[in-house]
Write a structure and sequence with these properties.
The protein has 677 residues and is an alpha+beta fold. The protein has 24 helices and 16 strands. The chain has helices spanning 2-12, 28-39, 56-74, 83-117, 123-161, 185-198, 218-231, 246-251, 256-261, 267-272, 287-299, 305-314, 316-321, 333-341, 343-346, 349-363, 402-409, 471-489, 505-515, 575-579, 602-612, 615-623, 625-636, 647-670; strands at residues 206-208, 236-238, 371-380, 389-390, 426-427, 435-437, 445-455, 460-468, 495-498, 518-521, 540-542, 547-549, 555-557, 562-563, 568-573, 595-599. The strands form four sheets. Strands 3, 6, 7, 8, 9 and 10 form a six-stranded mixed β-sheet that branches. Strands 11, 12, 13, 14, 15 and 16 form a six-stranded antiparallel β-sheet that branches. Helix 3 (56-74) runs parallel beside helix 5 and helix 17 (402-409) packs across helix 24 (647-670). It is flat and about 100 Å long. Mean pLDDT is 81; it is low at 1-16 and 177-183.
Length: 677
C-alpha cells in the first residue's frame, strides 16, 4: 500500500513534456515589480519621501476651483445659509493637516535627542541620525505646503464672506522653509528653533510711528509714509493702535478707498449736471460729493442712506474720500435721498458713472474684448410677498406712487412686461413691475433681474441691464448689452459664453448670422420624445440636397413650407415608404407619414453643439463661472441681495453704481499703487 501511494504521489508531479508549467508562488521581486506598476513608488513609513512637492500655482488654482464650485453651486439655493460653514471647514481641513505634521515633528525631535545620546561613533548610528534629519526636513516641507494651502484658502474665504478666517484651536502662523539641508541633528534642531521664533516677527524694515490723539493732518502722514514705502517696499508699520489721532491715520495707509480714489474721475459728470441745479436760493449740494458717498456705501455694503450719512460723518477714511476734510458738512439723509430720486434719476447719472469707470478699465488694458460672458441673477424687490394680490384684482388707478407710474411707462418695453404674454400670478401694489417668481426653487417672491455682460480676461463688467425676472427678458438684455458695448466702446467680441437660457434658436441665429459671434452657449433643445418613438436627432440631415434621412434610409423632403411664424421648416417622408416600413411602430405609429421640423437657425445650433464638444467649449464653460462669482460678490460682499428702491428706474439706479463699484475694486486689485518719486 505504501508503494502504491508513493507511486501515485510521484505520478502527480511527474514531467509531461515541454508544455507543462509547474505550480509555484510569486517571487518577492515579482511582487515588488507588480506593486510598482499598480501604485508607483511608495516609501516605507520610516524613510523620507523622495517625491517632489506639488507646484504652488497649481495648488492655488485647485483651491480656487473648490471655492468657486461651492459658491456657484450653493448660491441662490436653500443651502446658502450653510455656505459660510462649509467654506470655513474647507480652510480648517488644511489647518488640521499642518497641526498633525507639527505633532509628528515634535516626535521626530524627541527621537533626535535619544539618537544623539546613543551615538557610539558607529556607522549604523550615524546613518540612523542622518535618516532622522532627512525625515524631519521632509516633514517641514510638507507642513509648509499645507500652510500655503491654508493661507490661500483663508484669503478666498475672506474674499467670499468679508470676514477673516480664524482657527478654533492652535495659531494661524506660517513657518518659513529651511534654506539648506541639515548636516547633523544639532544644526537641524537649532534651525528649527530659529524658524519657530521668526514666524512671530515680520520680516522687513520696521517703521514705527506715534503721535497725539488730537493730530488730524492725514495728508502729511500719508505723504510721508508713501515716501518711506517707496524707499522700503517691504517695510513693516508699527503703531500703538490708538482709536483716533495720528496712529489711526497711519493704520489707514492701505485702506481700499485710497487705492480706488485714483480711478474716480467725476469732473466731466459735474459739468453734465450743471443744468439740473438752480442758481437761486440755497446753494445746491455738490454732485461729486453725492456720488462719492454712494461709492462708499456700495463699496462697503452700507445699504441705508441714513446710516451712510452717519458713517461718512464719523469715519476718517470716508471723509477723506468724499473730500470733506475734518470740518466739512455731510448732507442730511433727506437731502441725499431727494437728489438721488430726483435730479440724479432724470440725468441718467448712474449710467454715466458706470461708463466712466468702464472707460478707465479699457484705458488700463483690463478689457481684451475677445471673449464675453453673459448671465442674470434674481434680486429680491422691496415688496412684501404676503401683500401681493391676484393679477385679475389689481388695477393701476392710483397713480400717486412713483413705482406705479414707472410701471405704466414700461408696459411696452421688451425688458419688462412686453417680454412675455404670460400674466403673473400675483402683483405687488407697491411695485407692480417686480415679477412674482419661484425660479430659485424655494418660496416664490417678487424680484428683478440683474444682467451682466463681462469680459473674460479679468472679469470686468462691460455692461449691466435691469429686467423683469423671466427668461425672455434675459435674451433681450443680452442683445441690448452687446449692441451697446459695440456702439459706446467699439467692442466686438469674438465669442460669447452663456448657459442654455441664451441657447434658443433665434438667439443663436442672431449671434452667428447678425453679429458674427461664436456661440459658446449650451443649446436649448426640447426635441427629444418621451414616448419611445424616434426623435429628430435620430434622423440624419443632408446638407447638399437639403433633405433628411430616416433610420431606415428613406428620404424626407421639404417644399419650403414655413411654420411657427416663419422660424421652422417642415420635412415630410413619402406615405408609400412609411406604410411598408418595419420601423413604423417606433417612428410614426399614429400618422401616415413621418414629419421632421428644422429651425431656420439650425446651422447656428449645429455650430454651438460643435463648439460645446470641443476643448474651447469646455474652457468657456469653466470661465463662465466668473459671472456667477460676480453675482455672489454682489449679494454677499456688497449686500445687494434685496433692493431698497422701487420701480424699473429704482432697479437701474441700484445695479449701475453697484457694477461700477465692482469694477473699481477690480482696478484697485489689479493695478498696484504708484510709488512717489
Amino acid at each position: 500500500m505504501r508503494l502504491a501511494d508513493s507511486s501515485a504521489d510521484a505520478g502527480a508531479f511527474s514531467y509531461h513534456g515541454d508544455d507543462f508549467e509547474p505550480q509555484h508562488s510569486s517571487s518577492p521581486t515579482d511582487q515588488v515589480l507588480h506593486e510598482l506598476q499598480l501604485y508607483g513608488y511608495r516609501p516605507f513609513d520610516d524613510e523620507p519621501d523622495p517625491r517632489p512637492l506639488p507646484d504652488g500655482n497649481r495648488l492655488a488654482d485647485a483651491i480656487a476651483d473648490i471655492f468657486d464650485a461651492l459658491v456657484a453651486s450653493l448660491s441662490d439655493t436653500c443651502l446658502e445659509p450653510d455656505l459660510d460653514d462649509l467654506l470655513w471647514s474647507t480652510v480648517n481641513l488644511f489647518h488640521r493637516a499642518s497641526q498633525r505634521i507639527e505633532r509628528e515633528l515634535d516626535d521626530n525631535e524627541q527621537t533626535h535627542r535619544r539618537s544623539q545620546g546613543e551615538q557610539d561613533r558607529s556607522e549604523v548610528k550615524s546613518v540612523e541620525l542622518e535618516r532622522l534629519t532627512a525625515e524631519g526636513q521632509s516633514m517641514i516641507e510638507r507642513r509648509y505646503a499645507f500652510e500655503l494651502m491654508r493661507d490661500t484658502a483663508a484669503d478666498l474665504y475672506d474674499r467670499q464672506t468679508g470676514s477673516s478666517w480664524r482657527p478654533r484651536t492652535g495659531s494661524k502662523v506660517s513657518h518659513r522653509t529651511l534654506t539648506s539641508a541639515m548636516i547633523d541633528s544639532r544644526d537641524f534642531l537649532v534651525a528649527r528653533r530659529k524658524a519657530e521664533a521668526q514666524v512671530l516677527l515680520p520680516t522687513g524694515p520696521k517703521v514705527a510711528i506715534t503721535g497725539g490723539l488730537d493730530f488730524s493732518d492725514y495728508r502729511l502722514i500719508w505723504d510721508r509714509l508713501d515716501k518711506v514705502h517707496a524707499k522700503h517696499p517691504d517695510m513693516v508699520l508699527l503703531h500703538g493702535g490708538s482709536p483716533k489721532g495720528a496712529e489711526l491715520i497711519a493704520a489707514k495707509l492701505d485702506h481700499l478707498l485710497r487705492s480706488i480714489d485714483r480711478f474716480v474721475e467725476l469732473d466731466g459728470l459735474r459739468q453734465e449736471l450743471s443744468g439740473f441745479y438752480s442758481h437761486t436760493g440755497r446753494p445746491s449740494v455738490d454732485p461729486e460729493l453725492m456720488l462719492r458717498m454712494l461709492i462708499v456705501g456700495y463699496c462697503f455694503g452700507i445699504r441705508s442712506e441714513r446710516r451712510l450719512c452717519d458713517e461718512v460723518h464719523l469715519n476718517l477714511a470716508y471723509r477723506w474720500f468724499c473730500r470733506l476734510g475734518l470740518d466739512g458738512r455731510v448732507p442730511d439723509h433727506s437731502t441725499f435721498s431727494k437728489n438721488r430720486h430726483g435730479r440724479f434719476r432724470d440725468s441718467n447719472l448712474f449710467r454715466r458713472l458706470f461708463e466712466t469707470v468702464l472707460g478707465r478699465c479699457i484705458d488700463e488694458g483690463l478689457v481684451g474684448g475677445e471673449g464675453f460672458a453673459v448671465d442674470g441673477s434674481l434680486i429680491k424687490a422691496d415688496a412684501n410677498r404676503q401683500n401681493g394680490i391676484a393679477s385679475a384684482e389689481w388695477s393701476a388707478t392710483d397713480r400717486t406712487s412713483r413705482a406705479v407710474e414707472e410701471y405704466l411707462t414700461v408696459l411696452d418695453d421688451a425688458a419688462f412686461d412686453a417680454a412675455s404674454e404670460v400674466t403673473p400670478k400675483f402683483i405687488s401694489p407697491s411695485d407692480p413691475a417686480a415679477r412674482w417668481t419661484g425660479a430659485d426653487g424655494g418660496l416664490a417672491f417678487f424680484a428683478y433681474e440683474a444682467n451682466y455682460l463681462i469680459d473674460l480676461d479679468n472679469a470686468i463688467i462691460v455692461d449691466v441691464e435691469a429686467t423683469t425676472a423671466i427668461r425672455q427678458a434675459e435674451v433681450t438684455a443680452a442683445k441690448r448689452m452687446i449692441e451697446r458695448s459695440r456702439d459706446r466702446f467699439d467692442l466686438y467680441p469674438a465669442r460669447l459664453a452663456g448657459d442654455s437660457g441664451y441657447g434658443s434658436a433665434e438667439m443663436l441665429g442672431w449671434l452667428v448670422y447678425d453679429q458674427g459671434i461664436e456661440p459658446h452657449v449650451s443649446v436649448f433643445d426640447k426635441s427629444a420624445r418621451q414616448d419611445g418613438t424616434f426623435s429628430r436627432s435620430d434622423f440624419t440631415y443632408g446638407r447638399e440636397g437639403d433633405v433628411y434621412f430616416c433610420p431606415a434610409g428613406k428620404m424626407l423632403e421639404t417644399k419650403g413650407t414655413l411654420v411657427n411664424d416663419g422660424a421652422t421648416i417642415q420635412y415630410r417622408a413619402s406615405k408609400f415608404d412609411c406604410e411598408v416600413c418595419a420601423l413604423k411602430p417606433t417612428c410614426c405609429p399614429n400618422a401616415p407619414a413621418r414629419k421632421v421640423s428644422r429651425s431656420v437657425y439650425e446651422g447656428a445650433r449645429d455650430m454651438a453643439r460643435d463648439i460645446a464638444a470641443s476643448e474651447e467649449g469646455k474652457t468657456s464653460r469653466r470661465q463662465r463661472k466668473k459671472v456667477e462669482m460676480l453675482f455672489a460678490h454682489l449679494k454677499r460682499i456688497l449686500k445687494l441681495d434685496r433692493l431698497r428702491l422701487r420701480g424699473p428706474n429704482g432697479a437701474k439706479d441700484e445695479f449701475h453704481p453697484a457694477a461700477a463699484v465692482q469694477n473699481l475694486r477690480k482696478l484697485a486689485k489689479l493695478i498696484p499703487m504708484p510709488m512717489p518719486a
